[in-house]
Write a structure and sequence with these properties.
Strand content: over 45%
Distance between the termini: 32 Å
Oligomer: single chain
Order of helices and strands: EEEHE
Radius of gyration: 13 Å
Strand order of the largest sheet: 3-2-1-4
Number of strands: 4
Amino acid sequence: MMHWRYRARKRIINGQVWFDVVEYIIDGKSRSWARESMAPGGESRAVLIKTLEKMLKDCKEQTAFTDEVK
């Protein structure tokens, strides 16, 4: 069964470290993630806040994963 969550990603680009948030997809034993960072948004202030809270909750529950760019 496939599902996703937000996850903190640690990127190392030319020796520089940067953290961002991406959608992290889990499909059985397969793992993948969005290439681009996620910016919170929504059609109302309430939806924006709910999205921010979900992002924060998910990032707190899981460790950051490293995505090294060469």
